[in-house]
Design brief:
alpha+beta, 3 helices, elongated
């Protein structure tokens, strides 16, 4: 096995130049230095094999790995860990920004219909959620619009049910 030729795998990891894939096993590798067959764990476990730094002690240390390759594998693992940490930080920043927007600009005011106004006494027990920036004078129109939308949706559902029932009879 030639340690400098690389393998003909689809992987783009630099560690593939020191191992060969096991045919029919996409997570299996064969070490070019000691010939050890690693049936599972993929290229990451192979890097642990060469670098002698397996945090879970799941891989045997390669006895024939040159010091410069060992150093290279340790650097690859370190770079991977830094990239994972950066990605996690970026995701958390995005989530915190989203939490800030959801809490700030999407606040709603609730109105459970317990107003003491005489004109609201004929209203049913609907609960309305108003946008935070809605003017109190616009709330009555908003309620009327919501009721009209709900009535329209109810009528559509009734018509669909009627048409389905009618088709079954025919």
């Amino acid at each position: 096995m030639d340690s400098g030729s690389g393998s003909n795998t689809g992987g783009c990891d630099l560690a593939w130049k020191y191992c060969a894939p096991i045919e029919g096993n996409r997570n299996g590798t064969i070490c070019s230095f000691c010939g050890m067959v690693i049936k599972s764990g993929g290229i990451t476990r192979f890097k642990f094999h060469l670098s002698h730094t397996d945090p879970h002690s799941n891989s045997k240390k390669c006895p024939n790995v040159p010091p410069e390759v060992k150093k290279e594998m340790r650097q690859l693992l370190l770079d991977r860990n830094k990239a994972k940490a950066k990605k996690a930080t970026n995701i958390e920043e995005i989530r915190s920004k989203l939490r800030g927007t959801m809490g700030g600009s999407h606040k709603h005011l609730f109105d459970d219909g317990d107003d003491d106004d005489e004109e609201n006494e004929e209203e049913d027990d609907d609960i309305y959620i108003y946008p935070a920036d809605m003017n109190p004078d616009e709330r009555a129109d908003y309620r009327v619009t919501c009721r009209a939308s709900n009535a329209s949706e109810w009528n559509r559902q009734q018509e669909e049910g009627f048409m389905r029932g009618k088709r079954k009879i025919v």
